[in-house]
Protein backbone atom coordinates (compact mmCIF):
# COMPACT_ATOMS: atom_id res chain seq x y z
CA UNK A 1 0.00 0.00 0.00
CA UNK A 2 1.33 3.43 -0.95
CA UNK A 3 2.02 5.67 2.03
CA UNK A 4 0.55 9.18 1.93
CA UNK A 5 3.05 11.92 1.18
CA UNK A 6 4.35 13.64 4.30
CA UNK A 7 4.60 16.93 2.40
CA UNK A 8 0.99 16.67 1.23
CA UNK A 9 -0.13 15.86 4.78
CA UNK A 10 1.68 18.87 6.22
CA UNK A 11 0.30 21.06 3.41
CA UNK A 12 -3.25 19.93 4.20
CA UNK A 13 -2.80 20.54 7.93
CA UNK A 14 -1.32 23.99 7.27
CA UNK A 15 -4.24 24.95 5.02
CA UNK A 16 -6.77 23.61 7.52
CA UNK A 17 -5.23 25.48 10.46
CA UNK A 18 -4.89 28.67 8.40
CA UNK A 19 -8.55 28.56 7.37
CA UNK A 20 -9.57 28.05 11.01
CA UNK A 21 -7.40 30.99 12.07
CA UNK A 22 -8.91 33.25 9.40
CA UNK A 23 -12.46 32.23 10.26
CA UNK A 24 -11.85 32.97 13.95
CA UNK A 25 -10.35 36.40 13.32
CA UNK A 26 -12.22 39.71 13.37
CA UNK A 27 -9.58 41.40 11.21
CA UNK A 28 -10.74 39.88 7.94
CA UNK A 29 -12.24 41.02 4.68
CA UNK A 30 -14.74 38.73 2.96
CA UNK A 31 -16.60 38.65 -0.34
CA UNK A 32 -18.32 35.65 -1.86
CA UNK A 33 -16.31 32.61 -0.75
CA UNK A 34 -12.98 34.44 -0.39
CA UNK A 35 -11.60 35.49 3.00
CA UNK A 36 -8.53 37.73 3.30
CA UNK A 37 -6.63 38.48 6.50
CA UNK A 38 -5.62 41.10 7.49
CA UNK A 39 -8.04 43.47 5.79
CA UNK A 40 -5.54 46.32 5.51
CA UNK A 41 -1.79 46.60 5.07
CA UNK A 42 0.41 49.35 6.50
CA UNK A 43 4.11 49.41 5.52
CA UNK A 44 6.95 51.72 6.52
CA UNK A 45 10.73 51.57 6.86
CA UNK A 46 10.38 49.56 10.07
CA UNK A 47 7.91 47.11 8.55
CA UNK A 48 8.76 46.42 4.93
CA UNK A 49 6.85 43.18 4.32
CA UNK A 50 3.39 41.78 5.01
CA UNK A 51 1.78 38.42 4.36
CA UNK A 52 -1.88 38.16 3.40
CA UNK A 53 -3.71 34.92 4.16
CA UNK A 54 -6.31 33.92 1.59
CA UNK A 55 -8.88 31.17 2.13
CA UNK A 56 -11.60 29.66 -0.04
CA UNK A 57 -14.64 28.80 2.10
CA UNK A 58 -16.73 27.62 -0.85
CA UNK A 59 -17.51 24.14 -2.15
CA UNK A 60 -15.76 24.54 -5.51
CA UNK A 61 -12.22 25.24 -6.62
CA UNK A 62 -11.86 28.94 -7.43
CA UNK A 63 -9.31 31.10 -9.19
CA UNK A 64 -8.60 34.69 -8.20
CA UNK A 65 -6.60 37.32 -10.07
CA UNK A 66 -4.88 40.02 -8.03
CA UNK A 67 -4.31 43.54 -9.33
CA UNK A 68 -3.88 47.11 -8.09
CA UNK A 69 -6.63 49.71 -8.34
CA UNK A 70 -7.07 53.25 -7.04
CA UNK A 71 -9.95 54.57 -4.96
CA UNK A 72 -11.24 57.88 -3.73
CA UNK A 73 -13.13 57.81 -0.43
CA UNK A 74 -16.18 60.01 -0.59
CA UNK A 75 -17.50 62.01 2.34
CA UNK A 76 -20.08 59.30 3.13
CA UNK A 77 -17.41 56.58 3.27
CA UNK A 78 -18.23 55.02 -0.09
CA UNK A 79 -15.43 54.39 -2.59
CA UNK A 80 -15.12 55.59 -6.17
CA UNK A 81 -12.54 54.15 -8.56
CA UNK A 82 -10.20 56.74 -10.07
CA UNK A 83 -7.12 56.85 -12.31
CA UNK A 84 -5.58 60.14 -11.14
CA UNK A 85 -5.00 61.12 -7.51
CA UNK A 86 -6.96 63.93 -5.92
CA UNK A 87 -5.15 66.94 -4.54
CA UNK A 88 -3.19 65.76 -1.51
CA UNK A 89 -3.62 62.07 -2.40
CA UNK A 90 -0.65 59.85 -3.31
CA UNK A 91 -0.83 56.42 -4.94
CA UNK A 92 1.34 53.63 -3.53
CA UNK A 93 1.52 51.59 -6.75
CA UNK A 94 5.18 52.27 -7.54
CA UNK A 95 6.38 51.51 -4.05
CA UNK A 96 5.31 47.94 -3.39
CA UNK A 97 5.26 44.59 -5.14
CA UNK A 98 3.30 41.44 -4.47
CA UNK A 99 3.29 37.80 -5.50
CA UNK A 100 1.73 35.66 -6.69
CA UNK A 101 -0.62 37.64 -8.94
CA UNK A 102 -3.15 34.85 -9.25
CA UNK A 103 -4.12 31.94 -7.03
CA UNK A 104 -6.18 28.78 -7.43
CA UNK A 105 -7.75 27.56 -4.19
CA UNK A 106 -9.50 24.25 -3.65
CA UNK A 107 -12.40 24.18 -1.14
CA UNK A 108 -11.13 25.06 2.37
CA UNK A 109 -7.65 25.66 1.00
CA UNK A 110 -5.52 28.65 2.04
CA UNK A 111 -2.54 30.42 0.53
CA UNK A 112 -0.23 33.29 1.39
CA UNK A 113 0.29 36.39 -0.77
CA UNK A 114 3.44 38.36 0.06
CA UNK A 115 3.69 42.16 -0.15
CA UNK A 116 7.02 43.99 -0.05
CA UNK A 117 7.97 47.67 0.15
CA UNK A 118 10.20 48.84 -2.73
CA UNK A 119 11.81 52.07 -3.95
CA UNK A 120 11.46 53.54 -0.46
CA UNK A 121 14.31 55.98 -1.17
CA UNK A 122 12.01 57.79 -3.61
CA UNK A 123 9.28 58.41 -1.03
CA UNK A 124 8.56 61.89 0.23
CA UNK A 125 7.27 62.30 3.81
CA UNK A 126 3.58 61.39 4.16
CA UNK A 127 1.19 58.62 3.27
CA UNK A 128 0.64 56.68 0.05
CA UNK A 129 -2.36 54.45 -0.65
CA UNK A 130 -3.50 52.00 -3.32
CA UNK A 131 -5.76 48.95 -3.13
CA UNK A 132 -5.17 45.28 -3.90
CA UNK A 133 -8.14 43.91 -5.82
CA UNK A 134 -8.99 40.20 -5.70
CA UNK A 135 -11.29 39.24 -8.58
CA UNK A 136 -12.88 35.83 -8.96
CA UNK A 137 -12.40 34.34 -12.41
CA UNK A 138 -15.48 32.48 -13.73
CA UNK A 139 -14.91 28.83 -14.52
CA UNK A 140 -14.52 28.24 -18.26
CA UNK A 141 -15.81 25.20 -20.14
CA UNK A 142 -13.12 23.08 -21.82
CA UNK A 143 -12.36 24.02 -25.45
CA UNK A 144 -15.09 22.71 -27.72
CA UNK A 145 -17.54 22.01 -24.90
CA UNK A 146 -20.74 24.06 -24.87
CA UNK A 147 -23.76 23.99 -22.63
CA UNK A 148 -26.70 22.26 -24.27
CA UNK A 149 -29.95 24.28 -24.35
CA UNK A 150 -33.02 22.65 -22.89
CA UNK A 151 -34.85 22.78 -26.23
CA UNK A 152 -33.85 23.31 -29.83
CA UNK A 153 -35.84 26.54 -30.01
CA UNK A 154 -34.62 27.84 -26.65
CA UNK A 155 -32.28 30.80 -26.36
CA UNK A 156 -29.83 30.12 -23.56
CA UNK A 157 -28.60 33.07 -21.50
CA UNK A 158 -26.31 32.43 -18.55
CA UNK A 159 -25.49 35.11 -16.01
CA UNK A 160 -22.29 34.56 -14.05
CA UNK A 161 -21.67 36.53 -10.86
CA UNK A 162 -18.12 37.87 -10.59
CA UNK A 163 -17.05 38.78 -7.07
CA UNK A 164 -14.38 41.31 -6.19
CA UNK A 165 -12.72 42.31 -2.94
CA UNK A 166 -10.32 45.20 -2.34
CA UNK A 167 -8.08 45.97 0.64
CA UNK A 168 -5.93 49.08 1.14
CA UNK A 169 -2.15 49.01 0.99
CA UNK A 170 -0.82 52.03 2.88
CA UNK A 171 2.80 53.18 2.92
CA UNK A 172 4.00 55.78 5.42
CA UNK A 173 7.30 57.62 5.33
CA UNK A 174 8.99 60.19 7.52
CA UNK A 175 7.39 62.05 10.39
CA UNK A 176 3.67 61.41 10.69
CA UNK A 177 0.94 63.30 12.51
CA UNK A 178 -2.76 62.66 12.98
CA UNK A 179 -5.56 64.02 15.12
CA UNK A 180 -9.21 62.99 15.18
CA UNK A 181 -12.38 64.50 16.61
CA UNK A 182 -16.08 63.60 16.74
CA UNK A 183 -18.65 66.30 16.04
CA UNK A 184 -22.27 66.99 15.04
CA UNK A 185 -23.72 64.09 17.02
CA UNK A 186 -27.44 63.73 16.40
CA UNK A 187 -30.05 61.02 16.88
CA UNK A 188 -32.29 60.49 13.88
CA UNK A 189 -35.66 58.82 14.53
CA UNK A 190 -35.90 58.14 18.25
CA UNK A 191 -38.34 55.28 17.77
CA UNK A 192 -37.42 52.35 19.97
CA UNK A 193 -36.26 49.96 17.24
CA UNK A 194 -34.99 52.38 14.58
CA UNK A 195 -32.86 54.99 16.34
CA UNK A 196 -29.84 56.10 14.31
CA UNK A 197 -26.86 58.10 15.50
CA UNK A 198 -25.21 60.49 13.05
CA UNK A 199 -21.56 61.37 13.65
CA UNK A 200 -18.92 63.37 11.78
CA UNK A 201 -15.44 61.83 12.12
CA UNK A 202 -12.88 64.58 11.61
CA UNK A 203 -9.24 63.98 10.67
CA UNK A 204 -6.22 66.25 10.45
CA UNK A 205 -2.53 65.55 9.82
CA UNK A 206 -0.67 63.73 7.06
CA UNK A 207 -1.92 60.14 7.60
CA UNK A 208 -5.26 58.33 7.68
CA UNK A 209 -7.11 57.32 10.82
CA UNK A 210 -8.54 53.84 11.39
CA UNK A 211 -10.38 52.58 14.45
CA UNK A 212 -13.59 51.45 16.13
CA UNK A 213 -16.62 53.44 17.25
CA UNK A 214 -18.30 52.39 20.51
CA UNK A 215 -21.48 54.01 21.83
CA UNK A 216 -22.61 53.72 25.46
CA UNK A 217 -25.95 54.87 26.80
CA UNK A 218 -25.69 56.48 30.24
CA UNK A 219 -29.04 56.57 32.08
CA UNK A 220 -29.97 59.47 34.41
CA UNK A 221 -28.99 57.26 37.40
CA UNK A 222 -25.56 56.49 35.86
CA UNK A 223 -26.18 52.95 34.51
CA UNK A 224 -24.03 52.31 31.44
CA UNK A 225 -25.27 50.12 28.56
CA UNK A 226 -23.44 49.54 25.30
CA UNK A 227 -25.83 50.33 22.43
CA UNK A 228 -23.55 50.51 19.40
CA UNK A 229 -20.26 49.15 18.07
CA UNK A 230 -18.70 49.41 14.60
CA UNK A 231 -15.19 48.10 13.90
CA UNK A 232 -12.80 49.26 11.20
CA UNK A 233 -13.91 52.82 10.45
CA UNK A 234 -11.40 54.89 8.51
CA UNK A 235 -10.97 58.38 7.16
CA UNK A 236 -8.40 58.25 4.37
CA UNK A 237 -6.18 61.08 3.20
CA UNK A 238 -6.79 63.63 1.81
CA UNK A 239 -10.31 63.61 3.35
CA UNK A 240 -10.76 65.68 6.48
CA UNK A 241 -14.23 64.45 7.49
CA UNK A 242 -16.44 61.40 7.11
CA UNK A 243 -20.19 61.46 7.65
CA UNK A 244 -21.23 58.27 9.41
CA UNK A 245 -24.34 56.88 11.00
CA UNK A 246 -25.04 53.68 12.89
CA UNK A 247 -28.14 51.99 14.23
CA UNK A 248 -28.51 52.06 17.99
CA UNK A 249 -29.57 48.94 19.85
CA UNK A 250 -32.90 48.74 21.63
CA UNK A 251 -32.28 47.34 25.12
CA UNK A 252 -34.17 47.25 28.43
CA UNK A 253 -33.62 50.41 30.44
CA UNK A 254 -32.54 52.47 27.43
CA UNK A 255 -34.58 55.59 26.66
CA UNK A 256 -33.19 57.84 23.94
CA UNK A 257 -35.23 60.78 25.25
CA UNK A 258 -33.22 61.15 28.47
CA UNK A 259 -29.74 60.48 29.79
CA UNK A 260 -26.80 60.80 27.42
CA UNK A 261 -24.70 58.96 24.83
CA UNK A 262 -20.95 58.60 25.32
CA UNK A 263 -19.05 57.88 22.10
CA UNK A 264 -15.40 56.86 21.79
CA UNK A 265 -13.22 56.33 18.72
CA UNK A 266 -10.33 53.98 19.52
CA UNK A 267 -7.82 51.58 17.99
CA UNK A 268 -6.10 48.52 19.45
CA UNK A 269 -2.55 47.58 18.57
CA UNK A 270 -0.41 44.90 20.24
CA UNK A 271 -2.87 44.66 23.12
CA UNK A 272 -2.83 48.40 23.80
CA UNK A 273 -5.82 50.65 23.16
CA UNK A 274 -5.38 54.17 21.83
CA UNK A 275 -8.11 56.78 22.24
CA UNK A 276 -8.43 58.96 19.13
CA UNK A 277 -11.49 61.00 20.12
CA UNK A 278 -14.55 61.06 22.35
CA UNK A 279 -17.80 63.01 22.55
CA UNK A 280 -21.10 63.07 24.43
CA UNK A 281 -24.65 63.81 23.37
CA UNK A 282 -27.22 64.91 25.96
CA UNK A 283 -30.61 63.35 25.26
CA UNK A 284 -33.91 65.13 25.66
Question: How many helices does DSSP assign?
Answer: 1
| Average pLDDT number | 86
CATH topology category name of the largest domain: Immunoglobulin-like
The helicity comes to under 10%
Strand-residue proportion: over 45%
Radius of gyration: 23 Å
- What is the CATH architecture descriptor of the largest domain? Sandwich
Taking the sheet with the most strands, its summary is: 6 strands, mixed
Instruction: Count the beta strands.
Output: 18
Shape: globular
Count structural domains: 2
The multimeric state of the shown protein is single chain
Helix vs. strand class? mainly beta
Give the N-to-C terminal Cα separation. 78 Å
Low-confidence stretches: 1-19, 21-26
CATH superfamily of the largest domain: Immunoglobulins
Question: Strand-and-helix sequence, N→C?
Answer: HEEEEEEEEEEEEEEEEEE
CATH class descriptor name of the largest domain: Mainly Beta
Q: Overview of this structure, please?
A:
- The protein has 284 residues and is mainly beta.
- It has 2 domains: 11-17 and 25-140 and 150-173, Immunoglobulins (Immunoglobulin-like); 178-282, Immunoglobulin-like.
- It is built from 1 helix and 18 strands.
- The strands form 4 sheets. Strands 3, 5, 6, 8, 10 and 11 form a 6-stranded mixed beta sheet that branches.
- A hairpin with a 2-residue loop joins strand 1 and strand 2.
- The longest helix is centred in the N-terminal third of the chain and has 19 residues, at 6-24.
- The radius of gyration is 23 Å and the shape is globular.
- The protein starts with 5 loop residues before the first helix and ends with a strand.
- Residues 1-29 form the signal peptide.
- This is Molecular chaperone.
- Keywords: Signal.
- InterPro entries: Ig-like_fold, PapD-like_sf.
- It comes from Pedobacter petrophilus.
